[in-house]
UniProtKB/TrEMBL annotation:
Keyword Heme: yes
InterPro entries attached to this UniProt entry: Cyt_c-like_dom (IPR009056), Cyt_c-like_dom_sf (IPR036909), Cyt_c_1A/1B (IPR002327)
Domain of life: Bacteria
Molecular function in Gene Ontology: electron transfer activity; heme binding; metal ion binding
Protein name: Cytochrome c
Residue ranges constituting the Cytochrome c domain according to the UniProt record: 26-126
Matching PANTHER family: CYTOCHROME C
Keywords of this entry: Electron transport, Heme, Iron, Metal-binding, Signal, Transport
The species this protein was found in: Enhydrobacter aerosaccus
Signal peptide: 1-22
One Pfam family matching this protein: Cytochrom_C
Length: 126
């Protein structure tokens, strides 16, 4: 009985993975479009290439204020944030509220679905 239950669970996981992957892929593709429209003026998705804002390549999992070659505000350097889906979501919602004193002159992304898509795209940059 346990073996059969385990096999059924494994089949359910395997059967749902392609759909979840397809959804994640679609989400990341939409996020890339949004990135190009909303973020690209100030940020790049290329490693080591900063603009007005730091490169966002590898941002997921990175400690805030540490991208080499970018001059961060003291607020960002001292924020003690490690960027993950939750912290990026909060930051994109209202950058000035999440890290008071940061240099990003952007009001934020108000739509939760758009933030989710941008985060999905940023998660692919590694």
């Amino acid at each position: 009985m346990r073996l059969r239950t385990g096999m059924m669970l494994a089949l359910l996981v395997l059967a749902s993975t392609p759909a979840a992957f397809a959804q994640d892929k679609h989400e990341a593709e939409e996020g890339e479009k949004l990135f190009k429209r909303v973020c690209f003026t100030c940020h790049t998705s290329e490693a080591g290439k900063n603009k007005i804002g730091p490169s966002l390549f590898g941002v997921v999992g990175r400690k805030a204020g540490t991208e080499a070659g970018f001059n961060y505000s003291s607020a960002m350097k001292e924020s003690n944030i490690t960027w993950n889906a939750d912290s990026i979501d909060q930051y994109l919602t209202d950058p000035k509220k999440f890290v008071p004193g940061n240099k990003m002159a952007y009001a934020g992304v108000k739509k939760a679905e758009e933030r989710k898509e941008i985060i999905s795209y940023l998660s692919t940059l590694h």
